[in-house]
């Protein structure tokens, strides 16, 4: 209750519900976007009101103060995800953009431009890019395109019947031709947690780079990219209590230093002539143009908030909620749970397919009950196709979710079955 009160969104809705007697919305869509605590909203506003200036441009004291706030947030994010140095953190628009910086950078390295460091990313016919069938489109399409541009083969680890895949599946798919292995730490459709450290070790043993989509892990569990041994990782501010319009790319220093910037322009360079440009070291070589400064400051505040709560504590709390969610779904006939049935292998969410009902009908019914979830393919069309469905209904929890909200979701899906007259075998 104390945590919820720190979020103006929940405080406002809870107060209005208390006034009108209507149920407060059960916000079970944090996997799509999370709500922000007052600290985050205030940090952004305070920065804009008192310290806004053109970061990294000019010599005034005001610019220095704004730059300190901007770079302080980078250091905070670095610490939060186990990066040894702030320079390993590159600002992007969101996770999608961060993943594109890697894929487009590798394409640039192979475009015959003679850019320094490009050899590290040589990719062509005979090489393989490996993903899984469970990826979010953001960690799928950039790699399809990179394969098409370079002539490398595009391969994937097929999803099993429950939408998961295993270390053994990866072992069978990785080989000495694999150059890039891109996968999600936690699937946004099944909640499945991949054994990242073991997978990164396997990839390293065949000389492949690992690119981790950490969108659904960083907001929920303690994550240390250095300890996990991944080469690149991406996540979004808006799913971890932070602002929209800010995402993060983490990279190993020597790889970021060798990766060509795919977007170029002002402030990312050291020397420009009418013929060519030399780029700054990372992270600034990847941050051309004016940056989303207040969003960066807000993300720094989100990290402080999460650190104050404690990620171990948040993870333990969310795990209880997920156990309750999975147990309730398992006890509901006619409802198929996507992903692992053992909650020990999943984080933060559960998506279901209800026999005889389209997810959009379910979503509309749930909305009428004030239960806010995500329906559709969740940007994971290939996974849904592999599971023989076109869409699902996803409930996701966060550190502010209550048991009551979980129960309201479970009641509402049973209510939808009754409302639409679905016959379920007892
Ligand atoms: N990967 C995963 C696993 C996600 O859940 C999401 C967000 N749905 C993304 C990538 C893309 O994040 P964004 O839209 O913030 O770029």
Automatic annotation (TrEMBL):
GO terms for biological process: cysteine metabolic process. It comes from the Bacteria. CDD domains: SufS_like. Coiled coil: none annotated. The keyword Transferase applies. Its cofactor is pyridoxal 5'-phosphate. It catalyses: (sulfur carrier)-H + L-cysteine = (sulfur carrier)-SH + L-alanine. It holds the Pfam family Aminotran_5. Belongs to the class-V pyridoxal-phosphate-dependent aminotransferase family. Csd subfamily. The keyword Transferase applies. Its EC number is 2.8.1.7. This is cysteine desulfurase. Residues 27-409 form the Aminotransferase class V domain.
């Amino acid at each position: 209750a104390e945590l919820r009160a720190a979020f103006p969104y929940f405080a406002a809705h809870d107060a209005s519900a208390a006034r009108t007697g209507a149920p407060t919305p059960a916000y079970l869509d944090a996997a799509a976007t999370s709500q922000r605590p007052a600290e985050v909203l205030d940090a952004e506003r305070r920065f804009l009101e008192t310290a806004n200036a053109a970061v990294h441009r000019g010599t005034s004291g005001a610019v220095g103060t704004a730059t300190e706030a901007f770079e302080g947030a980078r250091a905070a994010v670095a610490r939060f995800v186990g990066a040894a140095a702030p320079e390993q953190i590159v600002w992007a628009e969101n996770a999608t953009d961060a993943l594109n910086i890697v894929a487009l950078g590798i394409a640039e390295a192979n475009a015959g431009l003679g850019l320094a460091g490009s050899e590290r990313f040589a990719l062509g016919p005979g090489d393989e890019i490996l993903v899984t069938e469970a990826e979010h489109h953001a960690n799928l399409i950039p790699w399809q395109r990179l394969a098409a541009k370079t002539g490398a083969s595009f391969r994937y680890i097929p999803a099993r019947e429950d939408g998961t895949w295993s270390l053994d599946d990866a072992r069978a798919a990785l080989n000495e031709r694999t150059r890039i292995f891109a996968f999600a730490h936690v699937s946004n459709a099944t909640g499945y947690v991949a054994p990242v450290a073991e997978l990164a070790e396997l990839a390293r043993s065949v000389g492949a780079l690992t690119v981790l989509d950490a969108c659904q892990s960083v907001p929920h569990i303690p994550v240390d990219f250095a300890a996990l041994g991944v080469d690149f990782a991406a996540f979004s501010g808006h799913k971890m209590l932070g602002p929209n319009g800010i995402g993060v790319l983490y990279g190993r220093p020597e790889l970021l230093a060798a990766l060509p910037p795919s977007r170029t322009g002002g402030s990312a360079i050291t020397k420009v002539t009418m013929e060519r440009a030399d780029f700054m070291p990372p992270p600034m070589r990847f941050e051309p143009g004016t940056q989303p400064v207040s969003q960066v400051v807000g993300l720094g505040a989100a990290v402080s908030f999460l650190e104050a709560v404690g990620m171990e504590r948040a993870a333990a709390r969310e795990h209880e909620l997920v156990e309750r969610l999975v147990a309730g779904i398992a006890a509901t006939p006619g409802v198929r749970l996507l992903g692992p049935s053992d909650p020990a292998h999943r984080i933060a969410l559960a998506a279901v397919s209800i026999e005889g009902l389209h997810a959009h009908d379910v979503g509309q019914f749930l909305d009428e009950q004030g239960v806010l979830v995500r329906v559709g393919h969740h940007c994971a069309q290939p996974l849904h196709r592999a599971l023989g469905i076109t869409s699902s209904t996803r409930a996701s929890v966060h550190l502010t979710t209550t048991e009551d909200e979980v129960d309201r979701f479970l009641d509402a899906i049973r209510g939808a079955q009754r409302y639409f007259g679905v016959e379920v075998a007892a």
